[in-house]
Design brief:
InterPro entries: Cell_Envelope_Assoc (IPR051599), DUF218 (IPR003848). The chain is α/β, with parallel strands linked by helices. Helix content is 47%, strand content 14%. The strands form two sheets. Strands 1-8-7-2-5-6 form a six-stranded parallel beta sheet, sandwiched between helices. A two-stranded antiparallel sheet has the order 3-4. Helix 2 (22-50) packs across helix 7 (191-213), helix 5 crosses helix 6 (163-175) and helix 6 runs parallel beside helix 7.
């Protein structure tokens, strides 16, 4: 209920005024078109950069390590999209395509632990606990790629994510120095899928800057032997 004399939200917002002249409207349309093109450039570049390095679990080359990127939790358990990524990683392990699964996600607060939830899910799908390595500081795709290379010593890997994200992941990991191949997990074209695709347009701009300037991740820390130990004969 609005009190008498109080302005409404509409009153406080500036009025949207379209150009009155034909020339002004033409410039507005041209500006909008240019903005759309600029937004598409980074995403298009990443698709071209990934090239033929994206396929299915059956098409993936044999690599020692699979990297699974976090995709959120619901009540402490992987979201359906993250579960599908983990299912694909478990299939890669069962078929002998990979020997170790590196799960990378967000554990920036006590009540939110993506890597441990991912580990629990994988062990429930038959991947031995000793073959799973956790990266607790994979706050975004660039951080995950850089940490996989610099902290865990990963030089070659199969990356696992949905199709709308995998080209960005491959491009970023290659920029970080990893010989990467991406497995694109199939998903129905639902609202979540379309949201993910739209989100990629915004994320691809930041990713292009990351690939160009190669900043350090939010948290780097010391090197960790987890992957090497998991790959050792006794691991």
């Amino acid at each position: 209920m609005r009190l008498p004399g109080w302005p409404t939200l509409r009153d406080r917002l500036p009025a949207l005024r379209l150009p009155r002249t034909r020339r002004g409207r033409r410039r507005l349309v041209q500006g909008l078109m240019a903005a759309c093109v600029l937004a598409l450039v980074p995403a298009t570049w990443m698709r071209l950069e990934a090239g033929d390095r994206v396929g299915t679990t059956a098409e993936a080359p044999a690599r020692e390590v699979a990297v699974v990127f976090g995709a959120g939790l619901w009540n402490g358990r992987p979201t359906p999209y993250l579960a599908h990524r983990l299912d694909a990683a478990a299939e890669l392990y069962r078929t002998g395509k990979v020997k170790v699964v590196l799960v990378t996600g967000d554990n920036s607060r006590v009540e939110y632990d993506e890597p441990d939830a991912m580990r629990t899910y994988l062990t429930g799908r038959g991947v031995p606990d000793g073959r799973i390595v956790s990266d607790y500081a994979g706050f975004d795709s660039w951080d995950s790629c850089v940490r996989a290379k610099k902290i865990f010593g990963v030089d070659r890997a199969v990356l696992v994510s949905q199709g709308f994200h995998i080209h960005r992941a491959v491009t970023l990991c290659r920029s970080a120095g990893i010989d990467a191949y991406g497995v694109a997990v199939d998903e129905p074209r639902d609202a979540t899928w379309y949201y993910g695709g739209a989100r990629e347009l915004a994320a691809s701009g930041k990713a292009a800057l990351d690939a160009l300037f190669r900043p350090d991740p939010r948290f780097l820390g010391p090197e960790e032997p987890g992957v090497a130990e998991a790959l050792a004969p006794s691991g």
